[in-house]
Amino acid sequence: MSEANTLEVKILEKDYLVACPKDKQATLESAASHLDTKMREIRTSGKVHGTERIAVMAALNITYELLEKHSDQLGDQQILLALSDKLDLALKK
Question: For the domain bounded by 4-92, which CATH number is listed?
C-alpha cells in the first residue's frame, strides 16, 4: 500500500492540505482542479452566494454528472448483454 503524503491544493483562492498516497497525487490534483473550475463557474453565474453554498452546488452538479455517466454505462452494458444473448442464440441455430 502506498504511503500517505500531504498534498496542497488550491480551490477558490484557498489552500487545503490533503493526505494522499504519492501515486494518487496527480489524480487528486486533477480532481481539485475540476472542483475549482466548477466552483468558479457557479460563482461567476452570480446566482449562488457564499463559498459553502457554491461548494454544495458544485458537489451536487459533479455528483449528478457522475451518476448520469454511470447510468449510461449500465444501459450500455445491458444493450451489450442483450446483443450477446442474441448472438449466442443465432450461433446455436
Answer: 3.30.160.880
